[in-house]
Amino acid sequence: MVRKELISLLEKNIILFSKLSERINRAQIDFRPYSRTQVQLLMRLYISGRTRLKDLAAREFVPAPNLCAAFRKMESDGIVSRTVDENDRRNTWYSVTEQGAKVATKFINMFHQVMATMFKDIEKADEEKLIESFKTMNCILEKMGDKNA
Length: 149
What we know:
By secondary structure, the protein is mainly α. It folds into three domains: about 1-30; about 30-120, Arc Repressor Mutant, subunit A, CATH 1.10.10; about 120-149. The protein contains six helices and three strands, in the order H-H-E-H-H-E-E-H-H. A three-stranded antiparallel β-sheet has the order 1-3-2. The radius of gyration is 18 Å and the shape is globular. It starts with a helix and ends with a helix.
């Protein structure tokens, strides 16, 4: 059955990506003056754009009060801005400021360097296969996301 094979391959890839992620997390990156969690939140917010707190909490599987605590220092440092929705005061929007974009870009570049080191010895033919495979996967997953949104 095709779906069984698809699910099995997806599961295997999730595990392999998790192992790569662990290698990235073990890299000696200096996050100061922020915690690893704050940097990860900043980068996700930078990549995804302005987001409601409750949506970010749901996406990150973190209670909203915990996110507020994580964002407090970043907000006071001027790298994240918080806006209460004028139409519905229960909603709080977070976005990355111009200064925050510079900080996020700095850390993203650090992660890119770690990943480049991880893949430095890959053969060119394998790299090209991976690139083509990722392009195909991204296209299919984006279509699925559009249908399931």
